[in-house]
Amino acid sequence: MKTPDFLSGSEQSTRPESLYRPHPGEILARRCLSKSNLKQVEAAALIGISTKHLSRLINGHVNVGVDLARKLEACTKISAQAWLHYQTQFDLYRTAKLDKSPVLLSA
Hints:
Blueprint: H1 5-8, H2 24-31, H3 40-47, H4 51-58, H5 66-76, H6 80-99
Helix pairs in contact: 2-4, 3-4, 5-6
């Protein structure tokens, strides 16, 4: 099956893989929490998660899944799809960096 001309002739419109993609927790801290006067305990209560869970999210130790994305959407007015997109982009960036590391073991 031949690829249509409009697909094969178009330029790539995505950002380069090497460009840094922040963890969703970093985005939450920068775009939402830094602009409010809420303490971490208050923000966690609004989101519906524990303070420890929020801390781990902000520090990049917790991934955003569907449930957490819905909770973040309700508090931040940023769609759940956007939160999941941020997580996917971060995961792709992180794994691309791993794929380019030198191979230490050989068969």
